[in-house]
Specification:
Helix content is about 75%, strand content about 0%. It is mostly helical. About 25% of the residues are buried. The termini are close together.
Length: about 200
C-alpha cells in the first residue's frame, strides 16, 4: 500500500488544526484539537532535532576527512624525507587519504621501517615516527567522534519516523471522526486536503 508523503501530511495537519480553531462548535473538535496540536509539536521538534544531529554528523565527518588527510600528508612527507637521504626499501606506494584502511596499513609499514632503522636514520626516524603516530591518533579519535555522531543521527531519525507515524495516525483518527459526524460530501470535510492513503473514504488497493 502506498504511503502519504511528508508534505501531504504536514499540509493536512496544518489544515486540520486551522479547521479546529474556527469550528469549536462541533463536539469532536475539543477532543481532537489538542491531539492534532501535540502531533504537530512532536513532529516539528523531531525534524529540528534530527536536522541538528545530521549537521553535527556532517561536521564530524568533515573533520574526520581532514584528520586522515593529515595522516596522508605526514606519510608523503616521510617518503620525501627518506628520498632526500637516499634511503632504500621504504614504502613508496601512493595512498589516498580516503582509503583509510590501506593508508593505515601503509603508515604502519612505514613506522616499522623507521623503527628498524632508528640507529642509522637518527633524529629523522624519531621525528617521523612521532609525527605519524600523532596524526594517526588524531584521525582515530575523529573516527570515534564521527561514528558517535552518526549513531546519534540514526537514533533521532527513528524518533522522526515515529513522530511521522503519530502525525499520520492522528490525522486519520480526526478524519474518521469528521466524516462520521459531517459526512464525506460535507463542504467542511472536503475543504481539507486529505492524504489519499490516510483513513481514505474508499478502500485503497
Amino acid at each position: 500500500m502506498a504511503n502519504a508523503n511528508v508534505l501531504e501530511l504536514e499540509t493536512c495537519l496544518d489544515e486540520c488544526i486551522a479547521y479546529c480553531a474556527s469550528h469549536s462548535k462541533h463536539d469532536f473538535v475539543p477532543f481532537y484539537q489538542p491531539r492534532l496540536e501535540q502531533a504537530k509539536q512532536r513532529w516539528d521538534e523531531s525534524v529540528a532535532v534530527s536536522d541538528r544531529h545530521y549537521l553535527a554528523w556532517k561536521r564530524e565527518f568533515s573533520e574526520d576527512r581532514i584528520a586522515w588527510r593529515k595522516v596522508s600528508t605526514e606519510y608523503k612527507a616521510t617518503q620525501n624525507a627518506l628520498r632526500r637521504v637516499t634511503a632504500l626499501g621504504y614504502p613508496e606506494e601512493t595512498v589516498r587519504y580516503w582509503d583509510e584502511e590501506i593508508l593505515s596499513d601503509a603508515v604502519a609499514a612505514m613506522i616499522d621501517y623507521l623503527e628498524e632503522r632508528r640507529d642509522a636514520l637518527g633524529a629523522l626516524a624519531t621525528d617521523r615516527i612521532d609525527a605519524l603516530n600523532r596524526a594517526v591518533a588524531a584521525a582515530e579519535s575523529e573516527d570515534s567522534s564521527s561514528d558517535a555522531a552518526l549513531r546519534e543521527f540514526k537514533l533521532h531519525v527513528l524518533f522522526r519516523a515515529q513522530a511521522m507515524g503519530t502525525m499520520s495516525a492522528t490525522i486519520g483518527d480526526f478524519r474518521v471522526a469528521m466524516r462520521r459526524v459531517l459526512g464525506k460530501k460535507s463542504a467542511e470535510y472536503q475543504s481539507i486536503r486529505w492524504p489519499m492513503t490516510v483513513a481514505p473514504d474508499e478502500p485503497v488497493l
